[in-house]
Every structure is written in structure tokens, then in C-alpha cells.
Amino acid sequence: MSNPSILILPGDGIGQEVMAEVKKIISWYGDKRGLAFDVSEDLVGGAAYDVHGVPLADATMAKAQEVDAVLLGAVGGPKYDVLDFSVKPERGLLRLRKEMDLYANLRPAQCFDALADFSSLKKDVVAGLDIMIVRELTSGVYFGTPRGIFEENGERVGINTQRYTEAEVERVARSAFELAMRRNKKVCSMEKANVMESGILWREVVTRVGADYPEVELSHMYADNGAMQLVRWPKQFDVIVTDNLFGDILSDCAAMLTGSLGMLPSASLGAPMANGRPKAMYEPVHGSAPDIAGQGKANPIACILSFAMALRYSFDQGEEATRLEKAVEKVLADGVRTADLMGPEGGTPVSTAQMGDKIIEALDASL
Ligand code: NAD
Ligand code: IPM
Ligand code: MN
């Protein structure tokens, strides 16, 4: 049997720096655990635009459809701000998500004990936090039509459309309930059914799907209240299911509960392929961080934990995923910190590469 295949798309800015650390970890699994992967690498985002004039070449898209898992770093940067909207780096990422039909984006926010003091919230609010945001990723206002900038009555008008079909809500709701069954059996659905028809439909469909999961406690919350509750008392939540735009915003917010945006991984999952594995792309929640790119300051943990999610969801290697997560936990417990995890009391931060090396040392120590 051939090895499982991975397509690496480092992208732009710190995407390249954090992915370099993931590559070391993939090699470690080959060398030390006999887990060999067929790894290929390609361009996405601004890096692809620079070479091909588009943020995702058709050949790269085709490769992404064939592999067992895609690992993506980050896309975007000020250099590309002037480009036409249709070829902006972000369009490459959105094309991957849409054409691979990766409708369920799992964004776990877990607060490691060693960082509980570091969150901008009080320690007892975040200590032990373990929530899962399930963000719908292929529809909603990101993709709905009509969209564009039009001329209307002598002025320009910018239009985007929030649009959800019942089937789109149903499948992401099902993902959320299935996850909840393996966790603490609670789902909170967030929309704005008070002001949006799409929210009314969302709530109805989630409620209907919930009837298939009588053991799961389902609640509904308006997304604005949800944002407030996330910082007030996040431990009230287990699984949160929400739409594409609300999920984008709420997950950045949840990232700070864990100490830094540099800590939050994600898995973008679609329907099962012929081999039973879901179509999948793994991507940190953060972006290309132009303010620190090229300085070796980026925290690689979000990208590394995204690979742990790949081990769990694409490669049936739950124990190895836990090994990697424990290695990250150990390194943080030892006080190893990148600059984003430095408190006001200061200290000496490690570089992106040093953080990767420390995690490899902890992996070695786990054998
Ligand atoms: P960003 O996530 O890139 O950065 C926000 C802030 O968080 C910055 O101060 C940055 O330095 C910090 N940060 C982010 N990741 C970090 C890490 N791993 N370690 C340490 N600090 C980290 O968001 P932005 O500045 O709003 O966007 C910059 C570019 O990235 C834009 O072009 C945007 O479209 C793109 N973006 C891409 C993705 C993606 O590829 N998935 C996600 C978000 C933003
Ligand atoms: C994310 C990002 C993307 C999004 C952008 C870069 C397209 O913010 O993955 O969270 O808005 O989905
Ligand atoms: Mn985002």
C-alpha cells in the first residue's frame, strides 16, 4: 500500500515560517514512528500569484483534490493589497475550501494550563477551557450571490448576500452533533434569527437535526450575545456551531482565550472520499502576520497543532496526535515561549525554529 499523501501549501508571510516547523515534525514521524507520508509542496496565495499570476494554479487545485490531506500555512500580505479582487491571495484559499467542499471547519480553543495566567482574561475564566467551534466554511455571505460593486442611482453600492440552503445547514449541524457525542454532549448554535431570515432557517434546521441526537443538549444564542458570553464565561460551551462569517469572528475571539492567535489550529473537513477519509485541509486560524513576517518571531504551535488534527482526522493516528499535543503542552509547561506568549513581566522569547526544535525534543522524550 502506498503511503498517505500530503500536499503542503505554505503560502505567504509567516505561513512559510510556521510550515517549516511542521515539515520537521512530519520527518520526525517518518524517522521515529515509521509513519511515512508522500509529501509534495506547492504555491498558494501571493506566492502563487508571483509565479502564475493567479493565487491558485489549476494544477495545484487538482493536486489538492487528490491527496489525503492538504496542510496550509497562511495567505495574504500588504504587497498584494493593490491586486484586483479576483486574484487576491485570499481568493486562492477560498477556492480550495469551496472546490474541495470543506464545509465543516473545526476550530478548537483549548487553554493549556501553562498559559492560563497569560490570557487577557482572568485565570479562572480560561483555566481548563476546551471548546470546539464548528464554522460553516463553504457558503453564507462569503459565497452568496448577488455580490459585487454596482452603480445604482448615480452612486456605487457594495453587495454581498447571506444565503444558506437547508442542506448546507443540515450537514454542518450534523458534524457539530457528531462531535458533541464524542465530547460533553452540548451544542450551542449561534445566528441572528432575530434580524435575519437565514438565521430563522438556520435555527429551524439545527433544531430538526438535533432531534436525531436526544442525548445532546441543544441551545440557541444570538451571535452578538455569543461573542459576549465567550469572553464572560467561555466554559459554559462545549460545541458551538455557527455560520461562515460569525464563525470567522468568534474563532479569532476564542483564540485569545487560549493566550494567542498563534495557538489556534483548525481542520476543514468535507465529505468522506472513496477511502473513507474526509476531504481535508488543515490550517492555523491566524493569517500571514505581515507585522512580524520574516523575523523568526511567529508562534508555530497553531500550525503544528493543525498537523496533530490531521493525524487524528485524516490518518487514524489519534494516539500520535495526542503525543504531539502532549509534546506542545510539555514545552509550554517548561516555560518555552515565543514572543506572542510573553507577558508584561518580559523574558527571553525563543524563535519560531527554536520552538519547533523544543517540540521535537519533547517528542523524542516521549518515546
Ligand atoms: P493575522 O492573523 O495575520 O495577524 C493578526 C495579529 O496576530 C498580528 O499582530 C500578528 O502578528 C499576530 N499573529 C498572528 N499569527 C501569529 C503567530 N502565529 N505568532 C505570533 N503572532 C501572530 O491577521 P491580519 O493582520 O488581519 O491579516 C494579515 C493577512 O493575513 C491579510 O492579508 C489577511 O487576509 C490574511 N489572513 C489569512 C488567513 C489565512 O490564510 N488562513 C487568516 C487570517 C488572515
Ligand atoms: C480565516 C481567514 C480567512 C477567512 C480569509 C483569509 C479568507 O480570516 O481563515 O479565518 O475569512 O475565512
Ligand atoms: Mn479569520
Automatic annotation (TrEMBL):
Q: Domain Isopropylmalate dehydrogenase-like: where?
A: 5-359
Task: Write out the coiled-coil annotation as residue ranges.
Answer: none
Signal peptide residues are none
EC numbers: 1.1.1.85
Q: Where is it found, in Gene Ontology cellular component terms?
A: cytosol
Q: Which GO terms describe its biological process?
A: L-leucine biosynthetic process
Q: Where is this site: Important for catalysis?
A: Y142, K192
Query: What is this protein's function?
Result: Catalyzes the oxidation of 3-carboxy-2-hydroxy-4-methylpentanoate (3-isopropylmalate) to 3-carboxy-4-methyl-2-oxopentanoate. The product decarboxylates to 4-methyl-2 oxopentanoate.
Q: What is this protein called?
A: 3-isopropylmalate dehydrogenase
> Origin organism of this chain?
Rhodobacter xanthinilyticus
Gene for this chain: leuB
